[in-house]
């Protein structure tokens, strides 16, 4: 990927800025990074707290359809590699919560759309709590890397490492080596083998999470068979 970085002091959401650029034809590799987002968003329409001191960015990619399915698990793997490189104990919770010491340090949001005549665009959003403060209500489930490491971290260094690793993973996906990425995801996973409750648009299911597949889907043994889930919210039951 040939990266081209747009740095903003403040914006609503880097996803929206990136989308506008992509709609105007921005090439793959355009990255929007902001010190602060006033309207950061997470999966399932949630709000994503994005105060100063964190790392909030979106990468514009233009993948072939077959690389799209694993993009979000793949970017989780990329973030996992970088944090492990810092000596942190990383876990990935399906689909792509990044946990450090069991608490959520980051999240990934992939939004895809098609531009008529211009193929698929994937907006890969990465949010990582680095040196930022977390709102009181989030402190139990979330964590900033600074708290774990006991010192402030260089966001620039982290950012560069993340871009490099996202590039590595993306290459692997494009070259059809998705299975390698899946295998790495399985190793980092805190979801597989656990009894989980999944909350989806058409109801809740409980079962043992048994595997992930090439579209990023989660397989859960719900008792009367194994069922694939492509979206939803997973709660670890025990
Ligand atoms: C999640 O865990 O729900 C995903 C969170 C993704 C947050 C990032 S921060 C950069 C980009 N801009 C946004 O508004 N969201 C993503």
Structural write-up:
- This protein has 238 residues and is an alpha+beta fold.
- The protein has two domains: 4-188, BirA Bifunctional Protein, domain 2 (2-Layer Sandwich); 195-236, SH3 type barrels (Roll).
- The protein is built from six helices and twelve strands.
- The strands form two sheets. The protein has a seven-stranded mixed β-sheet, with helices on both faces. A five-stranded antiparallel β-sheet has the order 11-10-9-8-12, with no helix packed on it.
- The protein binds biotin (BTN).
- Biotin is lined by residues 13-15, 37, 40-43, 46, 48, 50, 56-58, 97, 107-109, 125-127.
Number of separate helices:
6
Strand order of the largest sheet: 1-2-3-7-6-5-4
The geometry reads as globular
CATH superfamily of the largest domain: Bira Bifunctional Protein, Domain 2
Strand content: 25-35%
Count all strands and give the number: 12
Here the CATH topology of the largest domain equals BirA Bifunctional Protein, domain 2
Mean residue pLDDT: 95
CATH class designation of the largest domain = Alpha Beta
Query: Approximately how much helix is present in the residues?
Result: 25-40%
How many strands, what sense, and barrel or not for the largest sheet? Answer: 7 strands, mixed
Low-confidence stretches: none
Bound molecules: biotin
Structural class designation: alpha+beta
**How many structural domains does the protein architecture include?**
2
Give the radius of gyration: 17 Å
CATH architecture classification name of the largest domain: 2-Layer Sandwich
State the end-to-end distance: 41 Å
Q: Write down the secondary-structure element order.
A: EHEEHHEEEEHHHEEEEE
């Amino acid at each position: 990927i040939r990266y081209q970085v747009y740095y903003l002091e403040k914006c609503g959401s880097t996803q929206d800025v990136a989308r506008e650029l992509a709609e105007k034809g921005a090439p793959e590799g355009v990255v929007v990074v902001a010190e602060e987002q006033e309207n950061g968003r997470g999966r399932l329409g949630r709000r994503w707290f994005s105060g100063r001191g964190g790392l909030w960015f979106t990468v514009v990619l233009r993948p072939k359809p077959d690389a799209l399915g694993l993009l979000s698990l793949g970017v989780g793997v990329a973030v996992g590699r970088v944090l492990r490189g810092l000596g942190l104990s990383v876990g990935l919770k399906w689909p792509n919560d990044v946990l450090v010491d069991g608490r959520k340090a980051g999240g990934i949001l992939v939004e895809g759309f098609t531009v008529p005549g211009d193929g698929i665009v994937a907006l890969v959003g990465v949010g990582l709590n680095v040196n930022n403060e977390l709102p009181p209500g989030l402190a139990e489930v979330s964590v900033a890397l600074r708290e774990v490491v006991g010192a402030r971290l260089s966001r620039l260094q982290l950012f560069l490492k993340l871009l490099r690793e996202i590039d590595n993973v993306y290459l692997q996906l494009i070259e059809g080596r998705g299975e390698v990425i899946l295998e790495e995801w399985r190793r980092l996973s805190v979801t597989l083998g656990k009894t989980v409750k999944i909350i989806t648009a058409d109801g809740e299911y409980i079962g043992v999470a048994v595997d992930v597949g090439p579209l990023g889907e989660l397989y859960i043994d719900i008792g009367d068979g194994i069922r694939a889930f492509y979206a939803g919210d997973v709660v670890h039951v025990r």
